[in-house]
Amino acid sequence: MVVLPEVIMLRHVNTPKDVADILAWQCKVDIPESLLRATELRLAGNMLAMGGDLDEAIDKYKQAHIRLIDALYALGRYKDVADAVVAAEAKDASFKALPEYKTIQQALRKQNVAV
Description:
This protein has five helices and two strands; from the N terminus they run E-E-H-H-H-H-H. It is 67% helix and 3% strand. The protein has a two-stranded antiparallel sheet with strand order 1-2. Helix 2 packs antiparallel against helix 3 (54-74) and helix 3 packs antiparallel against helix 4 (78-91). With 115 residues, it is mainly alpha-helical.
């Protein structure tokens, strides 16, 4: 990986945390921990799915969506939270059965955001 405008060669950048550390160092961008966790869970789910463990992959997918929703909510991006909920529901109807779903709905109602 090369960081511009100055040419800074970086080696062994292979995790979301590594990328976040570089963004913080070079660009002064803070990536919320919940967004990092969502990315890690999504990647873990992808690996499980490619390996044939679909049940575990679906569980990781749901956890990743919850972490993404947490990160967006913490950033005050309530419309994006609603969009993420709709996307999760569209991909897997059982998302609505998660214990966190009710909490997410209540938090959005407090912000006057409909899903």
